[in-house]
Amino acid sequence: MKTNNALGWVLLVGFTLCAKQVLAQTPDLNQLLAEPGATDWLQAVSWISSGDFFDIAQTAAAGARGRHASSYTAEARWEPGVSAELDWSLHTHYPFPADLTYTESLVAGPGDSTIVGVDGFRPTPEGPLPPARVAMRVKRLWMSTPALLLAGAEGATPVSGRPDALSFTALATVWTIQLDPTTGFPVRISTTEDDPVFGRVEVSMEYFSWVGVDGVFMPERLEYRVDGQLIGREHRESVEIEFGAATAPRAISLPLDEPRFAKGWNTAHWFLSRVALGGPQDQDVSQPVELLEVAEGVYQVAGGPTHSLVIESADQLTVVDAPWYPERSEAVLASLRSRWPDKPVGRLILTHHHHDHSGGVMTFAAAGIPITVHALNRDFFFDALSRQGVGAVQIESVGERTNLMLGDRAVELYEVPTAHADGMLVVYLPDQSFLFNADLYSPGRETQHPLWSAELLQAVRFYDLPVERFAGAHGRGVESMGHLEQTASR
């Protein structure tokens, strides 16, 4: 790392000697990590980094420690408040091994940012970078460079009951900073974001190994957490600072009046999670809602990358899975009311706990619709909905195999033991010899996972289910048993 070692050590000693004095009163956050005026002259920061992503929304067991999703190296040059160039080499470990290389070019507003290269398993067009993705990246840049975030801090006040913690406002956002009582350096900076399943969650960046770089202190190592759970870890090398004309103060504006930019800023951890998996979902997926009949009275709810299923009976509808986030569930329910105004949704069945299949559960729970989940996942959803203030949550748990009567229609639920997720349920309609599953097998999609398909095939054979047609929460349409057997043998 390029550093000004002499100045760095002088400042470090100075911080250590005056730590008690700094923490005895409300410190000037604007000068906490830099020489007076240094950030006013700072024009750009460049670095090379490596790191790992851990996804807490795609764990095997609900609520478990995040699964190691990917590793990366990156080169970055950032002109704060103006532009950034980020060159990524991302290797995904889960759900598929792949090497992805792409460049993100960000500008201060969301309209002219671009991406070049492939950042996901399926082909994605090069061109404009969606506003939600821009917002996520911009927020991460500010959080990972605390000297610059603190340079714009206003209204620092002590946090009641938390020694050495201060609240401040910057970038139209309220933050909390925790200071080390020995050195006076930041230990972590946190704020709150919206999570589709848990509601308001704390997101934080933790800092380690401070070094002086031309009058500005920078952390060499960072950890990014959601509600205390690790989702990112980064080591920065070769940090360099460029100085130019002074700005007094640095002009910072955020296009938070643009809905998708605001969504990416206020739900940044969620968008990062999808990018880390090699399956970015930067666009709005609440619309369209398409009903594709895949069996008699059974409809795949398409229009996005993850589908629900609707089962029609004489006097009610049953929905399987609530993908992504509440806005998608609201759109699906509105479409169902329009199509079947006299048939209310009587039940939601969740195949498993992953957020791209359950992120819209809050909409169903708030509407008083009973929810059916595997017993292994009941506490996870009960806690999540309780955190969001849903009273008298109606959650029914089932085990390895369960027969349900949905109005006048018989439906069977079966557990599939799989490496993908504990408590995985599939939905079988005996009157149609039809089976719906999530993730294990995706009819109509080129990308398949042979292990998961083999696990589904083994379960179908074990339960001796005479399946003629399969549909999935990914892909489109139906396939036969022969196609599943072929997929599982790859």
Task: Give structural notes.
- With 490 residues, this protein is α+β, with helices and mostly antiparallel strands.
- The protein folds into two domains: 5-276, outer membrane lipoprotein receptor (LolB), chain A (Clam); 290-488, Ribonuclease Z/Hydroxyacylglutathione hydrolase-like (Metallo-beta-lactamase, Chain A, 4-Layer Sandwich), CATH 3.60.15.
- The protein is 23% helix and 37% strand.
- The protein is built from 13 helices and 25 strands.
- It has helices at 5-17, 19-24, 38-41, 131-144, 146-151, 259-266, 268-276, 326-339, 355-358, 361-366, 378-387, 450-462, 481-488; strands spanning 42-55, 67-79, 83-92, 98-107, 114-117, 127-128, 154-158, 165-170, 173-179, 186-195, 199-213, 216-226, 229-243, 290-295, 298-302, 308-312, 317-320, 345-349, 371-374, 395-398, 401-406, 409-415, 425-429, 434-437, 469-472.
- The strands form three sheets. Strands 6-5-4-3-2-1-13-12-11-10-9-8-7 form a 13-stranded antiparallel beta sheet. Strands 14-15-16-17-18-19-20 form a seven-stranded mixed beta sheet.
- A hairpin with a 2-residue loop joins strand 11 (199-213) and strand 12.
- Helix 4 (131-144) runs parallel beside helix 6 and helix 12 crosses helix 13 (481-488).
- The longest helix is centred in the first third of the chain and has 14 residues, at 131-144.
- It starts with a helix and ends with a helix.
- The model is unreliable at 3-22 (pLDDT under 50).
